[in-house]
């Protein structure tokens, strides 16, 4: 009853209040010439919580690969600026997702991050599949992978974060099936010395100390010509989950650090080149996944599960003003190394101990060149080319324990690894793209975009490895009755080098939109856009089931590309002399040939395949209001109805899907924020802020067992419906110093936010971080 009441209250707030993360970032548009009355301008300044709002600065975004007023972008975009991130303590993906309508993050633990936008997901893990939302750090895509470590990057000293909802296939390629999130870092300023620092110290109940340190320095090396900007950070955070298998309390601590540096050279107004390096290291000490049967914040593994991530990225971006157009060339090289070390004993209910030690490395080269018009006239255009090349090398080593080897009497292996092999996957994408806008007038324009690209994927297995049937031998040795008293002979098979099938697909993505401004402060639009994901080759295609389960399925070859078409209408407006803004988008998505991840029952081997189709439809709302002096009210919300609507009996059998079943997204989610700012002296303003987020429950996977039609999956479960409340109070001393006291998760919600779809884990449930109280101080030099 309480949850329903809170949910109803949140829904009412969404309908009445005003705006979200974007709205918190968005500043009112400048008044028209007729509205520039000094008394009204002073009234707006008195109502507004900051000088920035009072001046009427407008947000400029590059969601369309050119600088565009946010209000005129014909798609649904949420923008976070650095001030919002600092004041609200947003340092990673979790809070970004809660403050973006229609978006949830599926996060088993640190460095596992998959966004779901507009309901486009069958489960949150996406093992072996490309994530449905592309993540970019500047020009580098870091999300073109499924069940692998995906860095949670540092968000200090960024120019802004843009979250684009709906497919972005024409400008961002195959990785943006349901959207794209872009982290855009600040460029060096060759004209002034700048420096800043932010220190965040907190204490988490059920855990311990949280330490976050950030600093930035900007130095003009040659005045007006060359500048250097460097950002460094260090995080050391105690955990709050106890691992009773390892005997470590607060096991899921994390240490992370990094540096980002850039040199900008601008010898003239027409030419610039920027060189940048980004090094980020994230080392969680254990997973945050829990087993509710053991306790609220309790897990059990023989050794810590490790999901570390180490990113090095180098970029050179050249900008040339050609007079009629701007030429941009961006070249990026990155090396991302990650550990995937996980206890798999849950497969046999802890009766057979074994683990996977997988170490992977992604070498990525990205080249994009684009030319965007700057001339006057009714036509605006952009054309470009894109090249992406990634090699993923992974070493797979399956490990048991000395005790189990002794118990089974097996002595054939030189170490604890009973299976070891290496492979690499090459992924390449080449594309050309373009968009053309024609302005019939200042109030009406149309845009069309195309992208044609080819994607190639191939996996190669290296030689010198080996596989064995040790698990079957061990299980039947210890549990003879379950094997009918028969223990098979140990068989060790060398892994022969082999090249897998080449999966290749060429796709045409397109979009078309029409925008109409009935007044200077109102923009409406209608957009149709498409997106797709590249094909997937199953590394173990054709693998027969174990002899103990001859009726189980044979691993299929892989999954072909899926495709999505998004139909969207939107409204963006500012009213009452910019005291109230509203952004509303309604969408209908047709998703076909859906790529899904499944696991074979007998041995949990993962594989990818396709099923028929799904439909997602809904509405997203972002609002902001300044009803009285110093008071800002903000809210966002989304209603999404996403279900499978096209499924054959064969597709249902192999995937575990059911016709009409909900996809892995909440039906309703939203957030509301109230901030009151008031002067405490001639030099300082105080503020108090409350923030409440609501996320509805949703399934963590498809309901049935793959390969066993109609058999409910024992792993099937749903997340909790939950309300998450934060409170902040602080003082700003001019533009230089800010001190904020905060409480996160005020009411100590223990809600389950993620359900892992696979049986091999003992702990499959992620929870909200317990109540955290802290002090955040920032200073600008």
From TrEMBL:
GO terms for biological process: iron ion transport. Residues 22-49 are annotated as: Disordered. This is TonB-dependent receptor. One of its GO terms (cellular component) is cell outer membrane. It is found in: Cell outer membrane. Belongs to the TonB-dependent receptor family. The keyword Cell membrane does not apply. It comes from Alteriqipengyuania halimionae. Gene3D superfamilies: TonB-dependent receptor, beta-barrel domain (2.40.170.20).
